[in-house]
Each structure stands twice: as C-alpha cells, then as structure tokens.
Design a protein that fits this description.
By secondary structure, this protein is α+β, with helices and mostly antiparallel strands. It has three helices and four strands; from the N terminus they run ββαββαα. The protein has helices spanning about 20-30, 70, 75-85; strands at about 5, 15, 35-40, 45-50. A four-stranded antiparallel beta sheet has the order 2-1-3-4.
Length: about 90
C-alpha cells in the first residue's frame, strides 16, 4: 500500500518503513494540538482530525464510499414496496 503523509496539504511525503515511526509521532503531536493531518493514496486524500465535542451520533462507521452499495443491499421487490409506500406521500 503506497500512502503519503502531509500536515498542510501542500507537500506530501511517501510513508515507508524508515520514516513510519517519525510520521506516527508527528501525527500524534499534530492531532494532540487539535490540528489536521492528511493521508493520500490511490483513492484520494483523506483528512483526519479529532472531534471537538461536536459529534452527536451514537456511533461512527468508517467505510470506503465506493463500497457503500454493498453495505445497503435492497432487492427489486423491496424497492417496489418502498416506492409504493413513498409514492402516496409525494406531491406530483
């Protein structure tokens, strides 16, 4: 897995065995100071930060947005049933 690390989005550095612990310590220090860190891989750039008492959900589920279709599976019969329930509520 090729991954790159950045603390400011302007310059990314590749993570390897030699610099892994350095970036791990830097990430810990930055997050402790309530700053953001960024990781980049072949799928895009990910921003990480700590919650500041603003998360009001019951749980957090991290996932790859491309895999969301496999998380919520619905058959054609279920879609038709849902459409028949929703249609009377819609104004045409």
């Amino acid at each position: 897995c090729e991954c790159e690390f950045s603390s400011n989005l302007s310059e990314f550095e590749k993570i390897n065995e030699e610099n892994f612990n350095t970036f791990l310590n830097l990430a810990f220090d930055l997050l402790s100071q309530e700053k953001k860190i960024y990781l980049k891989d072949k799928n895009g750039i990910y921003e990480f930060s700590l919650f500041k008492n603003e998360f009001i959900g019951d749980f957090l589920l991290p996932c790859d947005i491309k895999a969301i279709n496999s998380v919520f599976v619905c058959s054609n019969e279920n879609l038709k049933l849902l459409a028949s329930l929703e249609k009377p509520l819609m104004k045409l």
